Amino acid sequence: MKLTLIYCYIFLLIIAASACKKDSAGDNASLRIISYTEDITAIGGRTVETYSVEYDAQNRITSVASTNKHGARTVYQYSAENSFTCDKYTDAVLLYHSVYFINNQSLIDSTWGREYKEAPYKSDTISGKFYYNEDKKLIKQKEFLNSTLVPPVLNRTINYQYDINGTLVKETADDYESSYAYEKENKNTVQLQPFYFPSNDQLPSHSYITRFGTTLETKHTYTFDDHKRVIGERAEQSDGRITILSYTYEK
């Protein structure tokens, strides 16, 4: 459950770019990704999965659906009251439902979510609060466990550190620490979640995550098209796991 929430909260801090729009390398090339493929090779074998991406009239992502597994998808629904929902399904079964509330800077202010488990287990609920600096950079995130019997209990605090240029270099919590180094020449063009999430337009060249005294290093390399859009990424981990991502943009 913790990993699920982390992926929902900060996935874009590693791979996301600025909001979906037509503005790349000074031309009119679209940054809307219409599909992508994830190819993972690990000790247990190899899996390949392709996803289709859909948008609404305001260029907001509404669905990321697997084309290999029927019913496996993430659905976003937006309201007029500065909030949106995220529902994750596998085999058409709802696994996770969350609500995100937007502040007056069009950034995530707080969230509430429920993870659904198979009977006889009950579903868990979790909430979170986001804190920003004057540059709209996420500096702290608090995660709470909720219960109908007692007030919310603080479960985790994640702190984010930036360099002088405002680029994320480290995030820390009680049970892990992540740090990043970036390539200098190219910018990220990948947007796979709603642009209300905090984002980083730099491409990591190396990332490191330390848990329980063990550090896992990941080396990232990229390929680009003629419009300087990211069309491929290879992430090679020190434990032997290799993830290859490829992206198709709207023409």
Give me some keywords for this one:
Porin; 6% helix; disordered N terminus; 16 strands; 251 residues; mainly beta; globular
Structure description:
There is one protein chain. With 251 residues, this protein is mainly beta. It has a single domain, classed as Porin, CATH 2.40.160. The chain is 6% helix and 55% strand. The protein has a 16-stranded antiparallel β-barrel. A hairpin with a 5-residue loop joins strand 6 (93-102) and strand 7 (108-115). The protein is globular and about 55 Å long.
- Which structural class should the secondary elements be placed in? mainly beta
Average pLDDT confidence is 86
Specify the CATH class: Mainly Beta
* Basic shape: globular
What name does the CATH topology carry? Porin
Strand content: over 45%
Protein name: DUF4595 domain-containing protein
Organism: Niastella yeongjuensis
Keywords: Signal
Signal peptide: 1-19
